[in-house]
């Protein structure tokens, strides 16, 4: 009985830590997806001098995040959204100047 109680206490401590780890890993997937899409847009911009006709990957590597873009000829803002919990209160964004928001999620 004591062994079961000790295992229950350890599990109650370990499970929340595991959940945080999984959520942080999800957020990292979104961050890397944004960085990859930004690199693709920048490579295209160096050739065409415009972001408007550039293709990019619209999903993160693990498929957890969907990546969308708002762009003009000289600017872009990428947004990564997910329905899964990632310990971030809003969508991840990255713009053409490298500004990342929200800062507490990066």
From TrEMBL:
InterPro entries to which the protein is assigned, alphabetical: PilE-like, Pilin-like
Gene Ontology biological process terms in this record: type IV pilus assembly
A Pfam family: ComP_DUS
Annotated protein name in UniProt: Type IV pilus assembly protein PilE
Organism annotation: Halomonas salipaludis
């Amino acid at each position: 009985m004591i062994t079961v109680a000790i295992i229950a206490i350890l599990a109650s401590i370990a499970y929340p830590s595991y959940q945080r780890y999984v959520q942080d890993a999800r957020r990292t997937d979104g961050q890397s997806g944004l960085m990859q899409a930004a690199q693709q847009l920048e490579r295209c911009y160096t050739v065409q001098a415009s972001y408007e006709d550039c293709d990019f990957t619209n999903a993160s590597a693990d498929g957890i995040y969907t990546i969308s873009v708002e762009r003009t000829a000289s600017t872009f803002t990428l947004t990564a959204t997910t329905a899964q919990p990632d310990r971030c209160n809003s969508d991840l964004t990255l713009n053409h100047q490298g500004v990342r928001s929200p800062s507490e999620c990066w």
